[in-house]
Amino acid sequence: MKFSMPQVGLMPKVGGLGALASVLLFATPAFAQEFDTGDTAWMLTSTALVLLMTIPGVALFYAGMVRKKNVLATMMQSFTITALVTVIWTIVGYSLAFTEGGAWVGGFSRFLLSGMELDAAHELAGTIPESVFMTFQMTFAIITAALITGAMADRMKFSALLVFITLWSIFVYAPIAHWVWAPGGWLRDYGVLDFAGGTVVHINSGIAALMAAYVLGPRIGYKRENLAPHNVGFTVIGAALLWVGWFGFNAGSSVNADTNAGMAMAVTQIATAAAALAWMFAEWFMAKKPSVLGAASGAVAGLVAITPASGFVTPGSALLIGIIAGVVCYWAVAWLKPRMGYDDSLDVFGVHCIGGITGAILTGVFATAAIGGKGFDGLVDGDSAQIVTQLVGVAATLVWSGAVSLILLLGIKATIGLRVEEMQEREGLDIALHGESIA
Amino acid sequence: MKFSMPQVGLMPKVGGLGALASVLLFATPAFAQEFDTGDTAWMLTSTALVLLMTIPGVALFYAGMVRKKNVLATMMQSFTITALVTVIWTIVGYSLAFTEGGAWVGGFSRFLLSGMELDAAHELAGTIPESVFMTFQMTFAIITAALITGAMADRMKFSALLVFITLWSIFVYAPIAHWVWAPGGWLRDYGVLDFAGGTVVHINSGIAALMAAYVLGPRIGYKRENLAPHNVGFTVIGAALLWVGWFGFNAGSSVNADTNAGMAMAVTQIATAAAALAWMFAEWFMAKKPSVLGAASGAVAGLVAITPASGFVTPGSALLIGIIAGVVCYWAVAWLKPRMGYDDSLDVFGVHCIGGITGAILTGVFATAAIGGKGFDGLVDGDSAQIVTQLVGVAATLVWSGAVSLILLLGIKATIGLRVEEMQEREGLDIALHGESIA
Amino acid sequence: MKFSMPQVGLMPKVGGLGALASVLLFATPAFAQEFDTGDTAWMLTSTALVLLMTIPGVALFYAGMVRKKNVLATMMQSFTITALVTVIWTIVGYSLAFTEGGAWVGGFSRFLLSGMELDAAHELAGTIPESVFMTFQMTFAIITAALITGAMADRMKFSALLVFITLWSIFVYAPIAHWVWAPGGWLRDYGVLDFAGGTVVHINSGIAALMAAYVLGPRIGYKRENLAPHNVGFTVIGAALLWVGWFGFNAGSSVNADTNAGMAMAVTQIATAAAALAWMFAEWFMAKKPSVLGAASGAVAGLVAITPASGFVTPGSALLIGIIAGVVCYWAVAWLKPRMGYDDSLDVFGVHCIGGITGAILTGVFATAAIGGKGFDGLVDGDSAQIVTQLVGVAATLVWSGAVSLILLLGIKATIGLRVEEMQEREGLDIALHGESIA
Amino acid sequence: MKCVMAVIKPFKLDEVREALVAIGATGLTVTEVRGFGRQKGHTELYRGAEYEVSFLPKIKVEVVVADSLADRAVEAIQRGASTGQIGDGKIFVFDISQAVRIRTGETGADAL
Amino acid sequence: MKCVMAVIKPFKLDEVREALVAIGATGLTVTEVRGFGRQKGHTELYRGAEYEVSFLPKIKVEVVVADSLADRAVEAIQRGASTGQIGDGKIFVFDISQAVRIRTGETGADAL
Amino acid sequence: MKCVMAVIKPFKLDEVREALVAIGATGLTVTEVRGFGRQKGHTELYRGAEYEVSFLPKIKVEVVVADSLADRAVEAIQRGASTGQIGDGKIFVFDISQAVRIRTGETGADAL
Ligand SMILES: Nc1ncnc2c1ncn2[C@@H]1O[C@H](COP(=O)(O)OP(=O)(O)O)[C@@H](O)[C@H]1O
Ligand SMILES: Nc1ncnc2c1ncn2[C@@H]1O[C@H](COP(=O)(O)OP(=O)(O)O)[C@@H](O)[C@H]1O
Ligand SMILES: Nc1ncnc2c1ncn2[C@@H]1O[C@H](COP(=O)(O)OP(=O)(O)O)[C@@H](O)[C@H]1O
């Protein structure tokens, strides 16, 4: 028997407290006896796909963009973050994010996953074991943290990174995930639409990255020396794995192998393709050549922008979202960034934050009840208020993530220090931090 | 409730117009209300797997075989084609290929995917949402186009490629997919067996590649300079990802997570392994050393050859199909190609077209009702006519794809030109076309 | 309808002959008519994931650790073994491992997979087609053989490798898989717990690797020349793919998309992360720097150790298993190996054998009926005898695999020879054996 | 003896080698280098950041010959390497005071 | 003519090139090399096995100039490459007996 | 001063370095090169297409020493690099007219 309440991803069918109440009725372990093997199969697969996005996806995507002397250190960041966030999520992150608590943060009832029995289910995902839901969500916490490292490339101290990510996962990621997705979270109740993590993952990591770029300061040689990517080939492979894995991210966020998952996959594919082409043509027009890095970046911009919308929009809208995201993000990195004067080395802000904001707003424009179900209307359905609601979600994320990230970074800088010595940066982090090098 | 009509992949249970009629009875959206989560889960996964075949699969497979100065441009071809064909498929390709029309091509009822509602289903895949079926088929259109680029390596103009692929996807891929798989398609009605795309994907891309090699002319230095693959390691990784992804290609073509999918996966694995060993031993015997490129190429040859047969044959037959394909394709690239005098740089014709023809014929030999179901008999079951039927399918594909590809290529050559300048080719396409290079 | 007998992976619910008898009641093809599409979907996916572990996973993991002149030869080993073991498994391996026979080895009833009809099911996996079960198990046979090659790096003759792997798969892998997993296998009846292959895959390959290192002798220059890994980046990518693929390995070993699969995935993720961090911190403390190779190795150590336990333990126990495995395996390669004087080049013994033994014992400690079901208690549930049972399993595997591997290796050495010529080793295996090189 | 060193375009290496062998050179050593000169490099643009790549890939060829062969070696390289276009490269001639074949210890012209 | 060859720290290449261009050098050739000297290398530790990496990455610059320019070229390189720290590298000056521009056949100082 | 340049087999580098250090050389520079000579290359065959790889991987060692040390440096390299087999390589000796240590500006033998 399938869990009978219709669901659109993790979103309640109707916003506000009414939805919360009706959802909570299901929050007993009683219904957890019968799981759907198809849904479970898809969510096991989705979890693997989202893990693939970080390792080796992000690891390769970022490693290709740094200089050769920092390749291993860059991969090490994604790899270690995968391990570290897994442990934090197990101990306390999942509990804070997804158990009942208040509007701001969950509680400690799943501390060290206590109570997550073999046949437990989470109320947001009644047809699959809670162990699967917990691990699926874990992979989101991992990739969000890993994405930030793009702003820290080539100069971040490894020990400082571990401290930062530990605190950030607890004090930034868990609360924001709670606000947006957990029953009782205030942004969810407020009606913010974020199917698969446009705010929680992308705006969140993007603004944290901007803070990191700002506090760390630019790389030695920024704007003077040749800091060009040493191997865009790796970046393309990484982007390709991100693309493939994102099916798990977006279609997996349906938490069922159902029509929403199917449509989410379709619109993800379409928006990504459109954005890759849009960035490519924009760059071809402006800079005279269509770069490979541009096509890969455009694809990621499209993936980011469709993320919040993926459960709510039609294929036609996805095409438009992709085109807009590709052009806007190209503008953000090629025009806006040079004028802002910070060194967000691998453009986390330009692609993930700007792309995420673009997606959040366009979700308010293009969401339609025909796809998302009753109550999920955007501007195209005549509900112009949804855009405002979306902007509240964006602003809340920018403020909390930006402020707390800044405090954490300044605190670490003042204590153990954030940045490697100049000679270490010159020598390259591979040798300086890890005692290894690529032949 | 599962869709009750027994199915073998996309093939009708019995050939001819009778099957068509019976299939059409189901062509109403009514039955689309209840999908099977297991089937849907598998088809979502299969779609991701087939996408993985192109990016990063084909991208790596081909990039490893070119010279270092063309690595990025080669990856760019697969990456951009993924985006481009996605958009074309969304706008018009899917509609032309898979809606009812006539024997030759579908109609425009799914133009821009209009009418593909959340709970729509396609008659060929009644247990999964149409959004999934559409995207799954999209990944086939993508890889077919990407495969062609192997013949164009190191000298194709990027703009010309985009124009060619756009037209080719509309005028060659969509019709042939319609002929073979769509209800009403003439080759389907004629009884041609092609479980997962031996004709539609491999013969089709292989003959188009031959035309491209012919119209483009050989690379500068062909047969004089050292054009050896710069990194067979990438090619092995690419072949490995093709192998893994092909489970989605062949077992996914069952469109259900059923016994046919299981057997298709088993025979795919077996034929591929046999072909890899066959090519390797053939080369070891003829050229004195078993090359790594040979083993990888043999695996791909096996994958190609088992593709049309994968829903119809036993494991024992798969073993034979693999051995034959490995030896035949080795012969095609090592003996036949040098005697034909064209420069099909990465052997698309030798591996995909010859391998596809081998597979198509052997499907006629080894198809058995024990696996494919009633009506699917080949020579081993005593139906010697099936081989003739298969040859008609092969010939039709060769003629249409060959002729239209040739016309398109000559047309582009006469207008915007197909090939880069000599100095650009010397300098390498990475810098000349995309302004990037690998350190 | 699902197969009604509750199952924990391939393990019987109760040990001993009683279980065997009850299982055998189901060993008729009758129940095979109705499969579960969700279970089938997950097992198709799991098979793809485990294949991904070997190619490109192990291929990259190992290739990154050798010198540049041996990269292709190293990849070739994994790639060819994939093909070779597939054929052996098809012909005779599956039959010997998984058909009824005696306590020691199966029979020939599935010789060349005869009798594996389209709708056949294996008694261990009643809800999926036997074709899927057979292929899933095939991928285990493949990776076990491929893992051994890490001990042979840089000096093994390719022809000797093919002969060794052929014999080893038949005389070592198939029997041990039968002992531990097949109904009637003596270690299974004895009550040994091995959810996903700690003994069958890891101890087995690890001890065979030690024998290979011993018989082959050290690489030229061992302990004198710089034999450092040429590209730890590849190793990280390989480890990442192993990690992702291992979800199929462990959660797939549930053979259902059920609560056991979900919990197996969760504990796999947690133990792996803990082990990666444990190795990293241990190395950071001992050797002053946290190496990238160390983090990757720690992850693999964690994956190995959780493998036998993955269906029986809680997340909290997984955390402990990971920490212990990370530290123990670090000790095994950094302290123990230099004192043993053999050249297990890529540490198969230290990571897989020692990690596997650690996991086998800890399974005896941490197995709990709350996860594994009635009858699956370890020390934490008060059953101290389970540890002894586990040790019997370890010892049996060490003795049989060690002894037969040694005999096979000595036999090959005495006949066709195991090792390449000195000049070939100096020149590098890529050119010497395969006539190829990386630019 | 003379060491004739040339910086040439990479795709001309095979022709240069053949030309040198033709005049009797028995060995040569090549290095991948990057050159800066009259031939312009190119600009690479990554997400809006422009990097001037002023160095172009070149091949350095070193061939040691007896004094009597030096002029012919220079001519041979010139013949093999020339395309008539900018960036074809340079040839420099150094004096060598000694040459030794490691394997045999032969010295002077015998070592070549 | 002189061939001024310098082994420098990699990140100093751009400054050296600019300094050389400033004094009128029209071309130069660079090679990635590894150097052993007073500046210590480092140790790499792979799973307990220690490897001494005694060679450090360096860049070799070769610039051929007319005799009259040689001293200024040496100075320019020194200015561009110096950090004042160990491992800054060396400059060596060789005599050149002939120079040829492949494209035109010009010789001597005209070839540079 | 002399610049002793040797082309050797790659796996002999460590022995050569040790031999040079033993006789008092304080620094050296190595380059990965490819060599063509009496030692044959090999053939690579890719899907039936044969490519002659005539160049073999070699290491070039350059060490600048005072005139008085030149002969011993040659001997040291020979000792370290010799296997007695074809392809062991060559040693060439160049004159150097000047040497400068970039860091300090020291010149001549002091710069080494
Ligand atoms: N003075 C020089 N010293 C050392 N190398 C030089 C010098 N001038 C040119 N080269 C090398 O020769 C190459 C070709 O020189 P360039 O000036 O571009 O063209 P051309 O040889 O046609 O005059 C350069 O890329 C550089 O490697
Ligand atoms: N005698 C030498 N012959 C050739 N190259 C040398 C010699 N001495 C030093 N070098 C090169 O110069 C580099 C810097 O030398 P080093 O002794 O480390 O520092 P410094 O230049 O400050 O004295 C070395 O890495 C090496 O490449
Ligand atoms: N005349 C030469 N000029 C420059 N390099 C040479 C010359 N002859 C040989 N070499 C270098 O020395 C290496 C070894 O030479 P080779 O003739 O193969 O063997 P051997 O040193 O035993 O005579 C060659 O690969 C090449 O790099």
Write the topology of this structure:
The complex is a heterohexamer, with three copies of chain A (439 residues) and three copies of chain D (112 residues).
Chain A lengths: L15 H9 L12 H27 L7 H28 L31 H19 L9 H24 L4 H5 L7 H19 L15 H19 L8 H29 L4 H15 L8 H26 L7 H19 L2 H4 L12 H30 L7 H6 L1 H6 L5
Helix pairs in contact in A: 2-3, 2-4, 2-8, 3-4, 3-5, 4-7, 5-7, 5-14, 7-12, 7-14, 8-9, 8-10, 9-10, 9-11, 10-11, 10-12, 11-12, 12-14
Chain D lengths: L1 E7 L4 H10 L5 E9 L5 E5 L2 E5 L2 E10 L4 H12 L8 E6 L2 E4 L11
Antiparallel strand pairs in D: 1-5, 1-6, 2-5, 3-4
Bound molecules: adenosine-5'-diphosphate (3 copies).
What do these coordinates show?
The complex is a heterohexamer, with 3 copies of chain A (439 residues) and 3 copies of chain D (112 residues). Chain A has one domain (15-419): Ammonium transporter fold. With 439 residues, chain A is an all-alpha fold. Chain A has helices spanning 16-24, 37-63, 71-98, 130-148, 158-181, 186-190, 198-216, 232-250, 259-287, 292-306, 315-340, 348-366, 369-372, 385-414, 422-427, 429-434. Chain A is 65% helix and 0% strand. Chain D has 2 helices and 7 strands. Chain D has a 4-stranded antiparallel β-sheet with strand order 2-5-1-6, with helices on one face. In chain D, strands 3-4 form a two-stranded antiparallel sheet. In chain D, a hairpin with a 2-residue loop joins strand 3 and strand 4. In chain D, helix 1 packs antiparallel against helix 2 (70-81). Chains in contact: A-B, A-C, A-D, A-E, B-C, B-D, B-F, C-E, C-F, D-E, D-F, E-F. At the A-C interface, helix 2, helix 3, helix 4 and helix 16 of A face helix 2, helix 8, helix 9, helix 10 and helix 11 of C. Strand 2 (28-36) of chain D pairs antiparallel with strand 2 of chain E. The structure holds adenosine-5'-diphosphate (ADP) (3 copies).
